[in-house]
Structure formats: C-alpha cells, structure tokens
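Hi everyone, sorry if this is the wrong subforum. Our group has a chain we'd like a structural model of before ordering constructs, and none of us has done structure prediction before. Sequence below.
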Amino acid sequence: MADHNELGKKAENVAAEYLQKKGYKILVRNFRYQKSEIDIIAEKEHQIIVVEVKARSTDFFILPQEAVTKGKIKSIVTAADHFMEEFNKNQEVRFDIISVLPDKKGNLIIEHIPDAFEAFDAN
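Answer:
Right subforum, don't worry. Here is the predicted structure as tokens:
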C-alpha cells in the first residue's frame, strides 16, 4: 500500500477516535454511493455530521482542508442526500472537515472544522 494511502487510513482512524472522545456517535465509515464516498458519518445532539477527513504529509504546498474542492463538495453532498434518504433520516445535516497533519515528531495533529461548508457550496 502506498504511503499516502496508509496515512489516509491512519488519519481516518484518528479522526473517528477523536470524534468519539468528543461525544459523537459514529454511524458509518466509508459510506459509498455511486462514485462518491463519505469518510465518516456521525451523529451528535440530534444532528447528522458528515465528515471529510483530509490528511497530508506536509502543509508546504496546501493545507489539507484546502484540498476539498467544489467538485468534492458536490460529491459529498450527493452521497449525504442518498444516505439521508436510504436510512430515512430527517435530522439537520452539518458538513465538517477534519484535517490531519504530522508534526515534526511524527505525531498526528488534528484540526476539526465544524460547518466547513454548506450543501449550497456544491453549486
């Protein structure tokens, strides 16, 4: 497995642990709809939280959260709509980003950005 894939998997695991410690209930990980994927779907305080996890080995060129493009947002929103329909959910949906970067010692640093984007940002 390529190093970036390993970092991505590790980042998703760290993000899920982080959310659970903060009181989020993880509903599903790696939810797929057509060609779209949502890294984590969680629930907290009667709200569905759709989480995109972005990891980079360095922030030299771009911050991880800056890699969430309009196209990616559109894909996430489409998959989230399908999830809500498929599982008959009618709660409010929030879209978060969790950015994961290693520090100089190799420890993973998490930045949680609640309400990182809105569904209409996909248009």
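For your construct planning: Helices lie at 3-21, 70-86. The CA atoms of residues 57 and 105 lie 12 Å apart.
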